[in-house]
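During the first year of the project, the team set up a workflow for recording each protein of interest as an amino acid sequence followed immediately by a discrete structure-token representation. This format lets reviewers and collaborators read both layers of information side by side without switching files. As required by the reporting guidelines, we include two representative entries from the current panel. The first entry is reproduced here exactly as it appears in our internal archive.
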Amino acid sequence: MRPILTFTISPSLPPELEDLRELAMNLRWSWNHETIALFRRLDSDLWEVCNHNPVRMLGNIDQKTMIEAVADEAFLAHLSRVKRDHDQYMAAESSWYKRKHGVEAAPITAYFSAEFGLTECLSIFAGGLGILAGDHLKSASDLGVPLVGVGLLYQQGYFRQFLNQAGWQQEDYAENEFHNLPLTLELRADGQPYTVTVNIGEGQVAAQLWRVQVGRIRLYLLDTNIPSNPQAYRDLTDQLYGGNEETRIKQEILLGIGGYQALRQLGIRPDVYHMNEGHSAFLAVEHVRTLMREHSLSFAEARELASAGLVFTTHTPVPAGHDYFTGDLVQRYLGKIISDLGITFEQFMGLGRREPSNVNESFCMTVLALRLASGSNGVSELHGKVSRQMWQGLWPGLPEDEIPIGHVTNGVHFRSWISHDLVGIYDRYLVPRWREEPSEPAIWARVWRVPAEELWRTHERRRERLVAFARRRLHDQLSRRGASPGELEFANEVLNPEALTIGFGRRFAEYKRAVLLLRDRDRLDRILNNPHQPVQVIYTGKAHPRDNLGKDLIKQIVSAAREPRFRQRIVFLEDYDMAVARYLVQGVDLWLNVPRRPREASGTSGMKAAANGVLNLSTLDGWWDEAWLMAQSANDPIGWAVGRGESYPSIDEQDSVEALALYDVLEREVVPMFYERGSDGLPRRWINSMKASISSLCHFFNTHRMVREYTELFYHPAASATNRLLQNGARQARDIAAWKLKVFAGWKDVNIVRIETDSLSAVKSGDSVTISAWIKLGNLSPADVQAELLFGRVDAKNEINNPVVSIIESTTEIRDGAVKYQVAAVPCCYSGLHGFTIRIRPWHPDLPGASQPPLILWAKE
């Protein structure tokens, strides 16, 4: 039955404990161990029952406990200390951003993402993308970066995972109780909720706004489950990545367009919009539409102005990870918006197609974002390269390494992932500044001062806690399935708290190869069940509900774990979440990651493990390819690589070869080194590798470094470009749009007529040659283009290797309508076969590379 009236009951706290409410409502507690300890001190068992949710905990705590806390001077002193630290943090008096950039007229960045992984009790994330987004906000908070987050508030969020008797993944969608979560419904001055109304096709969808306080950062979430909406629209924000393509496009319209409008209703006018993956790319369209209306601009003019402030991050090299929508869906749900833009439907579809005029091609959100953003990046050095290969067709004729997609390597938020025990060691030996300035290499070099025994005993305690946690978790799993008393008793004995423990926690996608270790089970048996050097593996992870192949991989692992020879050595933990992840990355000895190169964009779980002194064993893909090269150049023994990044003619051959390499590394290097003990019982070489890993990797693979890079390489340049284009009634944006129109119309008449050089028959090293080009520009002028010389050694395939690119300046000499361009002296420094070519491109000094017209003309032989 439905209520005729609803109201919210908030926790009743004694005045002396009222500060607990403020602490609970700010997610800074999720990365502040002292605040967590304060809530645990109230009732440790209830903290666990409430899934680490202080808001729910305060609403369910026994009144007797509260009375006792008021009478406990030590507790009150603890509360006062935590509150004082919280207030100092929120004041942001000494943040990095304030010290480096000040706060006067600081540009605001809006960070849009379909998911945010902030804490396990707020289930609005599915995996790595969401965790990365959550860590991004946390580091932005710590650094004091002026940023606001925008996402969707899912009534059910992502699914809870459980396995049936056959080991097949089942999904359960639990309702999020918004009023028992660290969420605040954003209210207007009259006490009514802020709502935004979005046109989605023929209907209007209303969404109310909730705010999550993430330290100093505000995250706004849109929720459509309100009475004014028809039931179909109330269900729109039910599930993350649920439903079909129709649900997905409606959710992404709500996220991008609704989120954009919500900020404006709140009086927030960002200078920069950061699209974290393509899910929110419709915000770029809404930005163009709004600028057209506010500044009386044409679509082309508003596009230039909008693009200046758009930043896009792509996260996957896997084709299935990019959203595609049919023309019918686009027409149905975006028809009115397209009409407002003043362009045809086909022109709009062209914004999301690799080939704009190909009517058979679907609309891709990634293509839309790449076409409209002034700055785009992958999330590791290798992923940047792979992304340039994937999307090279958007810039036809441009060499792969010049495609304007860069990279900002992902990181992790250390305070969210490093164990409390290790934090104490870092505080003692690294100096406390590591918390605020983890990007300084000198800080992490001090890890060599940590006594080997202290580091190892701390790690052993974490492994013991992991084993105890895994046993409890497995016992609960078996109990839910109706296991026999004997099976439940067995769960209390699995795993050995002293054995070499390998962790694997991933999304179960086929390319991540969770079962690579199971490829030769007899050999695995010999490795795991060596009586003198035992090894054990803890698996965890979810498959997408519609990914039956991923579910089958889980089933294979569960099946292996049930074999008598592996029952003590292999465990699969259900319902992978942030709590499970913390136990795992803090307690295992070795982190296993074996994606099929180059399918992993970055991966961050191994970074979390490394920050806890856990060694990595991984294929050279994603972040580990980068980390491995960094460590090899410094000769640091940070872990192990499976293979050396080779290419294979088939997937089966790649898997076969790399499985053998994995077994070899474990048998010959990993296991012997772990069990190699000195007279004091310490694995000295292993501990040295732990220190080398911490020292070499932690200064770089953290989100403080990552957010600083985004701020200085993307956010500030984008804000400056936006402000420049806005001046004088957006005069420059109008001029650029007119210039592009002229360039596109006149490019057909541009021609490199001929090339002239000195004699090239007897060139010696140390000589220089003069090269000239005669170029007809038609209606364009030399100021509209940039002519470039590419010069370098020629390989066996008749390709110029790593050419040096030089700008060729125009002269005043004109012959037969062609302008003479000349390089007076090209130095010939080395012997061997060399070559050159010339190209000409449109060029406007006020446009970043990604926004230059995708036109290029190469000299013909």
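The second entry, processed by the same pipeline in the following quarter, appears below.
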Amino acid sequence: MKRTKNRQSDALASVRETVDLRIVGGKLRGRPLAYSGDERTRPMKDRVREAVFNLLGPRVVGCHAVDLFAGTGALGLEAISRGAVHATFLERHLPTCKLIESNAAQLGVGEQVDVQFADTFKWNKLEQLPADRAWLVFCSPPYEFYVSRRDDLLQLIERFHAAAPDGSLFVVEADERFDYGLLPSAEQWDVRPYLPAVVGVMEK
């Protein structure tokens, strides 16, 4: 058992040394995030994350962040760094859930995060999210979902958009295959290319 723990520690140390993933702004700017390197989690590139949060600006302050396909947790943790009061992470890969919790603890914000081991498409606990505080909803799934599960994604975003309090913010990251005109309140989305990513931001 001890040998296994040592191997796990060595692997985590290797992850921290070889993958450069960091908080890019706010009170935790420059702090590193552990990342497994698993492409299934595909963290939003630092330059894109910085551009997105520049678009959001001070509206992040006081929000409750919701990271629908959390992966590394970088988006929700970045939101906390920039003034969000709490973040809910939905992630279907249990080891990745544990990594998000570990990152939050290392950053000293463990009490501000709620990591839920769940299939985002099936998650039906919207009542757990605050009704009296604006949400900041991130939808940054694998790009392939916009092809293979497009209708499921549209229904998911519509469900959160309908339930979110006024003033809530939505960030959807896709690629050029996705038509942002299909989203709710399509005319309100500010869509920007950061190729290969395309990002849409809107305020309800």
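For the second entry, the following points were noted during internal review. Strands lie at 64-67, 86-91, 113-117, 135-139, 169-174, 190-194, 197-203. Confidence is low (pLDDT under 50) at residues 1-19. Both points are flagged for discussion at the upcoming steering committee meeting.
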